[in-house]
Each structure stands twice: as C-alpha cells, then as structure tokens.
Amino acid sequence: MMEEKIVDLTPDGYKKLEDRLDYLKTHQRREVADRIRQAKEFGEIGENSEYEDAKSEQAFIEGEIMRLESILRNARILDIREIRTSIVGIGSRVRIYSSKTKEETEYEIVGSNESDPIEGKISNLSPVGKALCGHKKGEEVTVVTPNGKVNYKIIKIMKS
After folding, report:
1. For site-directed labelling of 143, which of 18, 40, 73, 159 has its Cα 20 to 30 A away?
2. What's 80-159's CATH class?
3. Which helix (H) or strand (E) holds 103?
4. Is 60 exceeded by the pLDDT of residue 1?
5. Centroid of chain to Cα 138
6. pLDDT (tens digit per residue) in 37-53
7. Global confidence as pTM
8. How much is the CA Rg of the chain, to the nearest whole Å?
9. Quick one: CA dihedral 90, 91, 97, 100, positive or negative?
C-alpha cells in the first residue's frame, strides 16, 4: 500500500473538505443511485447510454469520496495561533506589490488541497506561493511565469 503523506490544511479548509465529503455521501450518492435505478427501467443495459453515464458518474463520486477521506485522514490542521506574521508560510495572508502591473494583490497561502485562486487562496506549491514562502516583509521575490519573470515585494504579512 502507498504511504499517504501529511496534508496541511487551515481549519476553514478542513471544514470545507468535510462538508464536501458529507454532501457527496448523503446527496450525490443517492442521486446517482436513483439515476441508475431509473436507467435500468429503460431496458437493455448494454445499449443504455443513460445507464452508462450514471455508472460513470457513480465511479467518479466514489473516487472523490475516497480521495477526500484520504486527505482528511492525513490532515494536519494548522493552529492559527502558531502562524507567524514575521515570515510567509501556510496560513499567511500576504499583500504583495507587482513591479510589472504596479498593483498590490493579497493572497492567502494554503496547502494544495484547498487552493482557490478565485478566492485569493494560492497553494504553497504554486510558483507564487513557493516564491513567497520563507520570506519576510520588505523582501522582494522573483517568480518565473510563462510570460516571463515577475518581481513582487512583500508589503504585509498577516494571519489568515
């Protein structure tokens, strides 16, 4: 069996994954089981695209349930009291200034399982997250992007 690695999660990220798992187990499973039952009523299973679609969705849901259970089983929930504001790390909220766009942006550094760039949550393993981690307020970091190098200056480090 593969050794499962420890997954760093913020308390909020852990709760969201728990909620997602609960939704999959209580609602999605039941919905797809109903779809399979209805599709069987359409006749010959071998030529029934509704049945095949429902079975594929069922396999996806079960795989997602297993993935989420593994993440939650191996989660290390970050203690918000231990997050430092002197150095960027998981759980930090960081305000940075881009020399390219001349704009300030704020990101929350999170583990890869809870990243959501639309919400301003970037993974510590993403190019920007990786570049920022371990640095202090006032320091500049360079991130290599597909469009070239971008320099960021760390303006402020806060707790999430």
Report:
1. 159
2. alpha beta
3. none
4. no
5. 28
6. 888 877 666 677 888 89
7. 0.77
8. 21
9. positive
